[in-house]
Amino acid sequence: MFWNINLPSPITASSKISHLMCPIDKHPHSYRFSKKETGYQYEGIIHDRPRSTGSDVDVCFSGHISVTRMEI
Fold it and tell me: In angstroms, rounded to a whole number, what is the distance separating the alpha carbons of residues 45 and 26?
């Protein structure tokens, strides 16, 4: 097992940050990549992704540190 930790952004010296143990969100990303001259470019808005209430994605997007135990 390992621990996955997600940090909210932005964090400043005056941020009041808490951490929460939470489950991983299993909703798939719906991002696109377009081919450019130098490679591929990501297209999409990460904050628009679907997420379950109380999941790691939801906790982090709400301004908290998410801590999730991951089984391998």
Answer: 18
Distance from C-alpha of 53 to C-alpha of 41, rounded to nearest angstrom: 30
Two tokens, residue 33: 């990549």
Euclidean distance between CA atoms 51 and 21, whole angstroms: 16
Instruction: For the chain, count helices (H), then strands (E).
Output: 1, 5
Amino acid letter, 62: S
CA pair distance 21, 47, nearest whole angstrom: 21
**Mean pLDDT lowest among 28-32, 36-40, 68-72:** 28-32
- CA within 13 Å, CB half, 24: 10
pTM of the predicted model, to two decimals?
0.75
